Structure formats: structure tokens, C-alpha cells
Amino acid sequence: MEARLDQLEALLRHEMQFNETRRQEMQQESKENFATLNARFDQLFERRREEEEPRFQLINDNPRNRQPDGHHGNPRIKIDFPRFRGDEDPTTWVCRAEQFFEFYGTPEEEKVLLASIYLEGEAQLWLQVLKDGDQQLTWDDMKRGLHTRFGPTQFEDFFGELTKLRQTGSVRDYQSQFEKLLVRAGRMTQAQQVSCFMSGLKLEIRTDVQVCKPATLTTAIGLARLYEDRSRVVHQGMRFHNTPRGNLLIKRLNPAEVNERRAKGLCFNCNERFGSPSL
Length: 279
Known about the structure:
Layout: H1 2-61, H2 91-104, H3 108-117, H4 121-133, H5 139-150, H6 158-164, H7 171-184, H8 190-199, H9 203-212, H10 217-241, H11 255-264
Helix pairs in contact: 4-5, 6-7, 9-10
Protein name: Retrotransposon gag domain-containing protein
Pfam families: Retrotrans_gag
InterPro entries: Retrotrans_gag_dom (IPR005162)
């Protein structure tokens, strides 16, 4: 009996030693595999960097990608200055121009000259007349002049128009009108913008948005669109369920017809057989 136990104990020790050896081998194999993968990733990354460097260098060397002060801008981003002919509301053009000035760090004294290069047609003629009357034209003067000459000049109180604006179509249309007036209404806090935007929404949308208490205009706009979509789906579902069904035609049979159909094993509503007659 003792010999049998000793034999089992030796076998168990051998098994445990084998398992430990195998575990160490697998651990070492895993380390080697990870090291190989890391080396491969490093090679791929280095190759990609070498392929990208010449292209970025060419972009950097292009004079068109330099900032007005001669320094290089972001090599991956190039912003074109917009053109304006005077045949539309200048609000969008002014916003894009100011984005350009901010991105390239354009000095204040260079803004009018740079912007004037991209005016065309009627807008170019208007600026020439304006500059002849004011040799010290600033960018703020130019913006005010553009809005007065080419903007909706019948609205002098843009803040008042903003507070009176009401949604009559989709939320997207209302948002577009709201943002155009907001740009020209002067500085407003986020709370004022949100309150003003919500007050002009349709009642069924405004109530849901107000319950959520959005903190920013972006959130309020997103909620308004969401509830507009939900309302549209609900109305479509109601129209579907309220659609009147076609009238069911039920033929009334006299006693003779009932007996005849029963005898022939025919359905009482159609001429199909439903089984053997049951008398």
C-alpha cells in the first residue's frame, strides 16, 4: 500500500514539474511573440513616417501655405479666403473672413486690404467708393458698411427681430434664420441665446426642450431636432392607425340557401368546400 502511495506521489510530482516547465515555456514564447509584434509595428510606423515626410515637406515649401507674416501654418490645413460679389447676405462671408483672420493671425491693419482683394463686381465698386470717402477704413467699419449696403437693412434692431422670431417651418429652417440674426444682434450669454431660441419654437417642441433645461444653444438645437423627429413619427403612426378600413361585405342567406350550402358542404360566406356536410 505504501509503495503504491509513493508511486502516486512521485507521479504527481513529475506531473506538477512538467506543468510548471510547460507554463514557463509558454510564458517565454508569449514574450517572444510580443517582442516580434512590437518590432514589426515599429518598422511599419517608421516606414509610414518616411513616406509622409516628403509630402508634408512639399506642402510646407509651397508659398501659398504660408501665413501672411511669412511663418508656416498647419501643413495639413489650408483655408481659402471666400469671395463676395454683393448678391447675397454678407453675414456668412464676414464670418468666414474672420475665421481666416483668426487662423492665420492676420494683423488688424491688414484685414481691410486682404478682404478687399476678394470682393468682386458690385461689392468691389462699393468698397472703392467707401474708401474714397474714408482713408482710415478699419475692418469694423467695413463690416458695418457691408451689412448696411448688402444686408437686410429693413431690420435695424437685430436683437428685437431675434426675440420676435418664430418657427413656422422645420427646426432646421428656424435655426438658420436664428443664427443669421444672432450674429448681428451683438454679444449674448449662452443663457440668453438658449432662452431666445426656445421661445420661438413651436409649442409642442418648446415644452419638451424646456423640460430638459439645456445649458447651451447647441444642446437646445439638438433637442429641438430630436423632438421634431419624434413628433413626426408619432403623427405618421396616428395617421396609419386612423386610416378607415374597407367595408366588409356580408351576404345574408335565406333559409333555402342555408340548407343548400349545408347539404353541399359549402362555406356560408364563399363557394369553397370546407368539408363533408354535417346534417
